[in-house]
Design a protein that fits this description.
Arc Repressor Mutant, subunit A; globular; 5-stranded antiparallel sheet
């Protein structure tokens, strides 16, 4: 069995895995916009060190002209998602006129986890996939009593209602 090495960070109730694009609080996945995620990576990797606004702007928006308001919005989104630490302090500290600092204690760790073979992934009906790389979803046979408004078209990317 092959093992995959995963580097991750832990702070407060969070586990942050940049390579897997995961942020979890107490095991629950948290969704972040791409720029907010990139900002969190930058701040956590510079744990406790000041990251200037200019450094952040160059890292998140290279070769682009964006206003500082975009950075302010990304910081606000992260603060809202992260909330406050156990002691009531914010995870992201503002250094006026300079930049930002990730203020929480961060632990970096590495774990080894087995690689999952797609053939071992369960289908929605509980059986195993044989040669499919993507799970297939089986919808129940539509009832003849359903109106057209209750029928769905199934395609590779998802489902669409038929009107």
């Amino acid at each position: 069995m092959e093992l995959k090495t995963i580097s991750f960070f832990e702070f407060g109730p969070f586990r942050f895995e940049p390579s897997e694009h995961w942020l979890r609080r107490d095991g629950q996945a948290i969704s972040l916009a791409p720029k907010a995620f990139e900002l969190l990576v930058l701040l956590v990797e510079n744990d406790g060190r000041l990251v200037s606004k200019d450094q952040i702007m160059r890292a998140l928006w290279p070769s682009s002209f964006v206003e500082e308001a975009n950075l302010t919005v990304a910081i606000s989104v992260l603060r809202k998602v992260l909330g406050r630490g156990a002691d009531g302090s914010q995870y992201i500290e503002t250094v006026p006129k300079k930049g930002y600092r990730f203020a929480a204690a961060v632990t970096q760790a590495v774990s080894a986890e087995p690689l999952t073979d797609p053939a071992e992934l369960p289908k929605r009906d509980g059986s195993l996939l044989t040669s499919d790389l993507h799970p297939t979803f089986v919808l129940p046979e539509p009832s003849r009593q359903l109106s057209l408004h209750n029928r769905w078209a199934v395609f590779a990317g998802g489902c669409l209602p038929l009107f």
